[in-house]
Automatic annotation (TrEMBL):
GO molecular function: DNA binding; DNA-directed RNA polymerase activity; metal ion binding
EC number(s) reported in the record: 2.7.7.6
Keyword Nucleotidyltransferase: yes
Annotated InterPro entries: DNA-dir_RpoC_beta_prime, DNA-dir_RpoC_beta_prime_bact, RNA_pol_asu, RNA_pol_N, RNA_pol_Rpb1_1, RNA_pol_Rpb1_3, RNA_pol_Rpb1_3_sf, RNA_pol_Rpb1_4
Biological processes per GO annotation: DNA-templated transcription
Catalysis: reaction(s): RNA(n) + a ribonucleoside 5'-triphosphate = RNA(n+1) + diphosphate
Protein name: DNA-directed RNA polymerase subunit
SMART domains named in the record: RPOLA_N
All copies of domain RNA polymerase N-terminal, residue ranges: 232-512
Position of the signal peptide: none
Pfam families: RNA_pol_Rpb1_1 (PF04997), RNA_pol_Rpb1_2 (PF00623), RNA_pol_Rpb1_3 (PF04983), RNA_pol_Rpb1_4 (PF05000), RNA_pol_Rpb1_5 (PF04998)
Gene3D superfamilies referenced in this protein's UniProt entry, alphabetically: 1.10.132.30, 1.10.40.90, 2.40.40.20, RNA polymerase II, clamp domain, RNA polymerase Rpb1, domain 3
Organism: candidate division WOR-3 bacterium 4484_100
């Protein structure tokens, strides 16, 4: 043992990279300090590891620092000495985390990764299917090793009867079952010859499916050839035993032990391996028993390597599948993602969020109790610095007592110490932002209402976690990059992420609505003070038409709109509009582009203040009377019922097919539902001169949609019914005539339950898929970063407006703004240079280019970028999150991946189909004939 004791003394911290490859039996032996031959762990009487067992001190090193098993050598001065009595090398106990053992298998066993995971690597090399390979390995079928004069080729799989027949008929015929024949066949493969043979066959092959198969095989052969690995290493003749401290045995109270699952799995392998050795070398045992034991050995090695891949995983106590080597590494809870990439943090908190309209956009409210805990080390340090306490212990006592000095110091600390707020699921960059904390009573975290959009948060019980950045670098980054006021633009599309929602929208919408006053001439108002005075004296309302003098012009507007314009920066006035969610977002966008972040934050705070105030004073509520009933509904319903009857008759007469009948019926009901929805919205608009609360909420975009309003007052319409296939959705032919106000009949209620259940199931199941998509996208794109300012390429792409037929989906100006022009862009009429080659196309220039009549423009593109690694800034263009040219080092690949993944996950989370309502738009298409049809 001592001669090989220093072969494996690696410095585990000194490495350049990690390479995963097949391990040969020799390599496994070079790692090992000795063979584990017994399945015992520790002696329960002496509490010492059993010799040659899974915790053997001779193989893995001493349990106690610098002390051999028998106690002959103690102390560090004997380091490296091997005790002649017990065979244990004197070393620190930490070697038990590094030293490995091995198990020599009685028969070769296939590695589960290479035969079971499709495409099976062993199967590909030997031209066998997974089922055939499994049959051979499970001792259910034979594989031919010597064909002699038989019609069977070498490597062909035979059943028991075929084998017995061939064995009797042909002399020299030889076939076997299990891992050994597979090992022999793989060992015989000459990779060089096989590679050239496959290339020749590929050239001659004409059938595409065979070509694909040959290409796969060639790729695998080349991988083996170039890596220096041998195919027979996919069959295990020796398996490594990982260090005992990585699969510990922990003593519990009452003399019991808690053990790692790996120990149980290793025990099974050792026990079965020893049994196979004894029955094959000792007394003659029936072949059927030997086969069964060998199959069980293959089974136990499979379970050790990857238990979850088995049809019936081996289970431990409480019917729980045991965690194998692969399970410990893979997935979210595996070693890589949980322990190496995931970090545990001190000083973080988590609580429910509530809204706080008094906060500024860059602030968040932290409960005092939480803040004391989060900033405890800093408070303790300050208390000691100021001489208020003389030891850390008394400082902590003072913090626990919540004394006034502690709160004074806390106030001082948080003044310029931002905290990070994160809301799970963290789908994109703005799901974690920095805020300056403000102390609050109570136990909830409070946030500004406008930051709900990037977080996709609401106040129905959502929770957020708080983290404290500690290092000076982290604090700088929080201030300069992560503070919420620096994250106003979306990294995905450059539009404002933070815009008014819900109450703010309804308040501003109410403020800017017009209510005509019959037989009353609009008054002339000259100033805001005059309007405020009239409103105070109640001689004027917000909605009354007035004439207002603005910049020497007389505008026809309302007092509400004048007050609304007072919220806007002077450069953006005068917006004589009825405010709704879309228009407010446009105003915020315009402010951001023209006046920058500071003015935009001011504008958002103005909107918030006035929006909440007006929404409260307006007293908007929904009552049952606001849900009006539609008089035309019955006629539309009866007309559609007749149409459906005629369609069904036509089907019975054989005039139309079942598919046509179904589609026509669905289209008829869809048109009817759309007609009812249209009529209902018109009726709601007329009700109370457009001041019907339900209509105002839908019209302003504050809450709900036209379709939901129709379900409340009109009819619920067609319902979707999930099919057995995940993607297929069938629409139930019978629509629900009742609205939610009228109430559903029993049958209607049961029809509607399909969709409601589907919505809940989808939210649970599809979110994981959407999240996984984002992860795969990030995995692909994560190393794409901006590595240089300009790659100097002369290549680029022509970009035009995005069209669907003749309809423009995305205009030219939107597509080219922020890109870099490849060559000079010249006005076709005036020959004026609009943008020079190599310059960024600004928003104004993009609009000019569009107006000049140019159909297409040549710009730099990442598809033609010639940067050796990553991309260059010129080919990428503008960073949408900042509105400026992208900087070197920006992780544009991850931004791109999150920009695709985040909306995908959000779409899944929005419960599908609005409670199961089938949304289908009956499209009408018209085509103009090429000829008029008249004969000249």
């Amino acid at each position: 043992m001592s001669s090989r004791s220093n072969t494996f003394d690696l410095n585990l911290m000194d490495y350049d990279g990690i390479r995963l490859s097949l391990a040969s039996p020799e390599t496994i032996l070079s790692w090992s300090r000795g063979e584990v031959t017994r399945a015992d762990t520790i002696n329960y009487r002496t509490q010492r590891p059993e010799k040659d067992g899974l915790f053997c001190e001779r193989i893995f090193g001493p349990v106690k620092d610098f002390e051999c098993s028998c106690g002959k050598y103690k102390k560090a001065k004997y380091r490296g000495t091997v005790c002649e009595r017990c065979g244990v090398e004197v070393a620190p106990a930490s070697v038990r985390r590094e030293r490995m053992g091995h198990i020599d298998l009685a028969v070769p066993v296939a590695h589960v990764f290479y035969y079971k995971i499709p495409p099976s690597k062993i199967g590909l090399l030997l031209d066998l299917s997974i089922n055939q390979l499994e049959a051979v390995l499970n001792y259910e079928a034979y594989i031919v090793l010597e064909s002699a004069d038989s019609p069977y080729r070498k490597g062909e799989v035979l059943l028991e009867e075929e084998y017995q027949e061939a064995k009797q008929k042909y002399e020299g015929f030889h076939a076997e079952m299990g891992g050994q024949p597979i090992y022999d066949l793989l060992k015989e493969i000459d990779l060089e010859n096989l590679s050239s043979d496959l290339r020749i066959r590929l050239e001659k092959e004409t059938l595409q499916s065979r070509q694909v198969q040959l290409l796969k095989k060639l790729k695998l052969v080349e991988a083996f050839r170039l890596s220096g690995n041998r195919p027979e290493w996919m069959i295990l003749t020796r398996i490594p035993v990982i260090p005992p401290d990585l699969r510990p045995l922990v003593a519990l109270e009452g003399g019991r032990y808690a053990t790692s699952d790996l120990n149980d799995l290793y025990k099974r392998v050792i026990t079965r391996n020893n049994r196979v050795k004894s029955i094959t070398s000792g007394i003659k045992t029936p072949e059927v028993i030997i086969r069964n034991e060998k199959r069980m050995l293959q089974d136990s090695v499979d379970a050790l390597l990857d238990n979850s891949r088995r049809t019936r995983p081996i289970k431990g106590r409480g019917n729980r599948p045991l965690k194998s080597l692969a399970d410990a590494l893979k997935g979210k809870q595996g070693r890589f993602r949980r322990n190496l990439l995931g970090k545990r943090v001190d000083y973080s908190g988590r609580s429910v969020i509530v809204v706080d309209p008094t906060l500024k956009l860059y602030q968040c409210g932290i409960p005092k109790e939480m803040a004391l805990e989060l900033f405890k080390p800093m408070i303790v340090r300050k208390l000691e610095e100021r001489g208020i306490v003389d030891s850390e212990r008394s400082a902590r006592r003072l913090v626990r007592a919540r004394s006034t000095e502690v709160y004074e110091i806390l106030d001082e600390i948080i003044r310029d110490h931002p905290v990070l707020l994160n809301r799970a699921p963290t789908l994109h960059r703005v799901s974690i932002q920095a805020f300056l904390p403000v102390l609050r009573e109570g136990r909830a975290i409070t946030i500004h209402p406008s930051v709900c959009v990037p977080y996709n948060a609401d106040f129905d019980g959502d929770t957020m976690s708080v983290h404290v950045p500690l290092s000076p670098e982290a604090l700088m980054e929080s201030f300069l990059l992560m503070l919420s006021i620096h994250n106003i633009r979306s990294p995905a599309n450059g539009r404002a992420l933070v815009s008014p929602t819900q109450d703010i929208v309804i308040g501003l919408h109410y403020l800017t609505k017009v209510r005509p006053v019959p037989n009353k001439k609009p008054r002339l108002m000259c100033s805001v003070d005059e309007i405020n005075m009239a409103l105070l004296e109640k001689t004027l309302t917000f909605h009354e038409p007035i004439r207002y003098k603005f910049n020497d012009k007389i505008l026809e507007t309302t007092p509400g709109r004048v007050l609304f314009n007072e919220l806007l920066p002077p450069e953006l006035r005068f917006k004589n509009i009825e405010a709704n969610k879309k228009r407010l977002a446009e105003i915020v966008d315009e402010c951001l582009n023209k006046l920058g972040t500071e003015k935009t934050i001011e504008l958002l705070d103005n909107f918030k203040q006035v929006g909440f105030e007006i929404a409260t004073t307006s007293g908007l509520t929904i009552g049952i009377d606001d849900m009006i009933t539609l008089k035309t509904k019955e006629n539309i319903w009866n007309r559609s019922t007749k149409e459906v009857l005629e369609i069904n008759k036509a089907h019975q007469s054989g005039l139309i097919s079942e598919t046509e009948r179904y589609n026509k019926v669905i289209d008829t009901w869809t048109r009817a539902a759309m007609q009812i929805e249209e009529d209902l919205i018109k009726e709601l608009k007329k009700d109370r001169h457009g001041f019907n609360p339900l209509y105002m909420m839908v019209d302003s975009g504050a809450r709900g949609s036209r379709n939901q309003a129709c379900q409340i007052c009109g009819l619920r319409g067609l319902m979707s019914k999930p099919q057995r296939k995940v993607t297929a959705v069938q629409i139930i032919e019978t629509p629900i005539k009742s609205s939610c106000k009228e109430g559903l009949s029993v049958l209607e209620y049961f029809i509607s339950t399909h969709g409601a259940r589907k919505g809940l199931a989808d939210t649970a199941l599809k979110t994981a898929d959407a999240g996984y998509l984002t992860r795969r996208l990030v995995d692909v794109a994560q190393n794409v970063t901006i590595t240089m300012a300009d790659c100097g390429t002369i290549m680029g792409q022509e970009i035009g407006a995005l069209k669907e037929g003749e309809k423009i989906v995305e205009p030219l100006s939107e597509r080219i703004a922020g890109r870099v022009a490849l060559v000079d862009i010249i006005d076709p009429v005036s020959n004026e240079v609009l943008v020079k080659g190599g310059e960024e196309i600004s928003n104004e220039a993009a609009i000019k280019i569009e107006k000049s009549g140019l159909e297409k423009v040549k710009v730099r593109s990442i598809l033609t970028c010639e940067a050796p690694v990553g991309l260059c800034a010129k080919c990428y263009g503008r960073n949408l999150a900042t509105g400026r040219m992208v900087e070197i080092g920006e992780a544009v690949g991850i931004i791109a991946a999150q920009s695709i993944g985040e909306p995908g996950t959000q779409l899944t989370l929005r419960t599908f189909h609005g409670g199961g309502v089938a949304l289908r738009i009956a499209e009408s298409t018209s085509r103009t004939a090429e000829f008029s049809g008249t004969v000249s």
